[in-house]
Design goal:
alpha/beta, about 25% helix, globular, about 150 residues, six-stranded mixed beta sheet
Length: about 150
């Protein structure tokens, strides 16, 4: 089973994604520190929101096999600079989150473009709430139960 590290802005859906992957009920809780849940390293949003904490991201990702960048399609801002994924030197997957509440297809497309610019190898569209796309991500990164 491969280990992933989730990276994204506060409120992007990283912790909710770990809950959705585990089949748990979604319970919002602010991630205050790096949290390891089975095969997922859940990082605080501050790690990407504050460039001074990039070293913490790199260190946290040392044991991850796949980096997962999460971009909320209801948020116009993006914390990922072009080429952001290259700092990890690992396969990087992008998640466009909250597609169930997107205001438009254009908002979803803009989130996808942000993840492409960041250097994601593959992009998925997910809703943690209705679990849309979660199984596809699990299968792609080798987390499906055999």
């Amino acid at each position: 089973m491969r280990t992933i590290m989730l990276v994204g802005k506060t409120g992007a859906g990283k912790t909710s994604f770990t809950q959705a992957m585990q089949g748990e009920d979604l319970v919002y809780k602010k991630t205050q520190a790096v949290n390891i849940v089975n095969n997922a390293i859940d990082t605080p949003g501050e790690f990407v929101e504050n460039r001074a904490l990039y070293r913490a991201l790199i260190t946290s990702g040392a044991d991850a096999e796949v980096i997962v960048l999460v971009q909320d399609c209801t948020d116009d801002t993006c914390m990922f600079a072009p080429g952001f994924a290259t700092m990890f030197g690992k396969p990087t997957v992008g998640l466009v989150s909250k597609v169930d509440i997107a205001e438009s297809e254009e908002a979803i497309e803009q989130a996808r473009e942000k993840l492409e610019l960041a250097g994601c190898d593959r992009i998925f569209y997910i809703s943690n709430k209705d679990r849309r796309g979660v199984d596809d991500v699990k299968a792609y990164i080798g987390l499906s139960e055999e």
